[in-house]
Hints:
This protein has about 300 residues and is mostly beta strands. The chain contains two helices and 21 strands. Strands 2, 5, 6, 9, 10 and 11 form a six-stranded mixed β-sheet that branches. Strands 14, 16, 17, 19, 20 and 21 form a six-stranded mixed β-sheet that branches. The chain is elongated and about 80 Å long. The mean pLDDT is about 90.
Amino acid sequence: MATLDIKLKRVNKIYHEGEVLAGVVIVQSKTDVQHQGITLTIDGSVNLQLSSKSVGLFEAFYNSVKPIQLLTGSLQVAKPGKFPAGKTELAFEFPLKAKGSRKLFETYHGVFVNIQYTVKADMKRPLLAKDMAKSIEFIIEYTDKTSKAEVKPVPFTVTPQTLQNAKEQKVSLPKFKVHGTLDSSSCSITKPLTGHVIVDECAVPIKSVEVQLVRVETCGCAEGYARDATEIQNIQIGEGDICRGITIPIHMVFPRLFTCPTVATTNFKVDFEINIVVVMKDDYLISENFPLNIFRH
Length: 297
């Protein structure tokens, strides 16, 4: 039984625009392998998907939701013939250059927006033998070092009077005061998000204090946009009825692939937000939201 595999020269599979994707296609078999040629296809695209609540909102949407091609190309790495028994390695190189005036966005695995780069090898076989294919993903990262944002601490104070929903719905809330600081709302993707939160007072027992990272994905066109916020990760930083006045540190590492530098184009946008959440014993939930600007530096 023959096997087909692709190995890239870089173990971490991280590349940047303008570099060369290099590696080998490996064919391994205990007997000779007849084939009709091996083709290598490289593909980079942005796949946009509408959430079920948005489908049907805009008829024009269906035009803009087709995948956006960023990178495409193919090359023949072996002409039709026969591979001898054992291991055969076929080297390949492919320049990573975006189509037309587009740029290669960072790899990102979201819910409604997906930016993915793959390389696929196809080996055609004679009539009775089954064709073989192997596909692997490689990762694109920005090299732009100029977008360093200034560090701006974001202080916050949450009381019943500052809560938007409580004002609108005229809900009676227990007396509480929570304050703290986010060290910066502009964050480098390679460094953790840091800060602290302090519960000054709370008339009812507290169940939990959490930090929630949220992705906000917007897809659409001139006729309209669908905006969806979904949770990426939730970290509990305080459990139970925590001591009043104690400083609780915030330390959150941005997960690889599920976050990327903030991106905005005509067809889609990916933003990130942080929620500081205090859950009380009677399931009252206090939440403070902070938009983030993420960059790679």
